[in-house]
Amino acid sequence: MSLRRRGEAVLRVGDSYLLCETVAFQADIISTVEFNSSGELLATGDKGGRVVVFQREQESKSQPQRRGEYNVYSTFQSHEPEFDYLKSLEIEEKINKIKWLPQQNAAYFLLSTNDKTVKLWKISERDKRPEGYNLKDEDGRIRDPSTITSLRVPVLQPMDLMVEATARRVFSNAHTYHINSISVNSDLQTYISTDDLRVNLWNLEITDRSFNIVDIKPANMEELTEVITSAEFHPQQCHTFAYSSSKGSIRLCDMRQAALCDKHCKYFEEPEDPSTRSFFSEIISSISDVKFSHNGRYLMTRDYLTVKVWDLQMESKPLETYQVHDYLRGKLCSLYENDCIFDKFECVWNGSDSVIMTGSYNNFFRMFDRNTKRDVTLEASRENSKPRAILKPRKVCVGGKRRKDEISVDSLDFSKKILHTTWHPHENIIAVAATNNLYIFQDKVN
């Protein structure tokens, strides 16, 4: 990798690549990470409002092992801090979500959002520049028309490759509350943006108007019992989308039924076991992420302790439930006191929908194989990463005698957490964001 900013270093980690910073500045903390539809580009957003796009190294006969490397392709400032003078509120520049649009031509397009404003960015390459203008000099100054005695035909001259990022659309003034997710429709013409109480439908060509398709705001805000936490379009059916709530439920909506989708067509919620109910039950049941599988048959949701897979044909209970870090169940009180219990972990499918991945604490991330029912805990950190190293599974010990290769649950560092992960759409390459570090792991290269 070739990115250099203040205090940065770039390390090669075996079959992985790490963008790391020696000092963790608040603005450098990664807040979202996303592969594009081909997997050739990887975008990250941070709390400083910046977007960094990495491009995959092209295959070389002399160095085939470099095929998996991602180098910095473009860096640009997507959002700036703003102030809402009407409400006396400061609007952070932090990038909440990035979503790529499928590539239609030589340029790339992505949507990025902070708490209030969504922007459509075009990323394009330029390796030629026009020369030989009639009305201006090569340095751009306007020429005196009286000195022009002949007409020239401008020509394109080669130049060093330059990657430009330009904001093509700005979608603003549509959300009263903080935007938590955006999702591009399969029709490639519309997308949804979601805040705590509303879901808005936008046309990618129209910036001054959106349609409110879900509104759960009660007439009296004192009667508010739940908020929307995430929403996503179905990957094939352009009229279907799902949104999750802080009460642990998922609603599937069909836009063909009504203009306002307040009435869902399917409702997914697991009945609570009365024997396990506690003060923290409602908090840990809140869904932080919802994702359709690539084939459109399943929904995956992440709450604080588990990942659940739902079959769209079965609303009564989840098809599969995976315990992410059940050893934390006895520590919920201390996690509540340090606010970690409110952390919002994301989840992601692999390209074939056979493996799912999500993050945990101590820079651990978990993988679950749906076919073999095997799971593994891996750690993303500089301390245990050596050149060409293979990541070793980690285990957490809960009480009793601790083995040499295990880590005690009391030793976990809750300030190190992996909230954001993404998986290459076609290959076993994953990107994991750990605070201000970006790790890219791939299958072992021979």
Automatic annotation (TrEMBL):
<keyword id="KW-0853">WD repeat</keyword>
<dbReference type="InterPro" id="IPR000009">
    <property type="entry name" value="PP2A_PR55"/>
</dbReference>
<protein>
    <recommendedName>
        <fullName>Serine/threonine-protein phosphatase 2A 55 kDa regulatory subunit B</fullName>
    </recommendedName>
</protein>
<dbReference type="InterPro" id="IPR018067">
    <property type="entry name" value="PP2A_PR55_CS"/>
</dbReference>
<dbReference type="InterPro" id="IPR001680">
    <property type="entry name" value="WD40_rpt"/>
</dbReference>
<comment type="similarity">
    <text>Belongs to the phosphatase 2A regulatory subunit B family.</text>
</comment>
<dbReference type="InterPro" id="IPR036322">
    <property type="entry name" value="WD40_repeat_dom_sf"/>
</dbReference>
<dbReference type="InterPro" id="IPR015943">
    <property type="entry name" value="WD40/YVTN_repeat-like_dom_sf"/>
</dbReference>
<comment type="subunit">
    <text>PP2A consists of a common heterodimeric core enzyme, composed of a 36 kDa catalytic subunit (subunit C) and a 65 kDa constant regulatory subunit (PR65 or subunit A), that associates with a variety of regulatory subunits.</text>
</comment>
<dbReference type="GO" id="GO:0019888">
    <property type="term" value="F:protein phosphatase regulator activity"/>
</dbReference>
<dbReference type="GO" id="GO:0000159">
    <property type="term" value="C:protein phosphatase type 2A complex"/>
</dbReference>
<keyword id="KW-0677">Repeat</keyword>
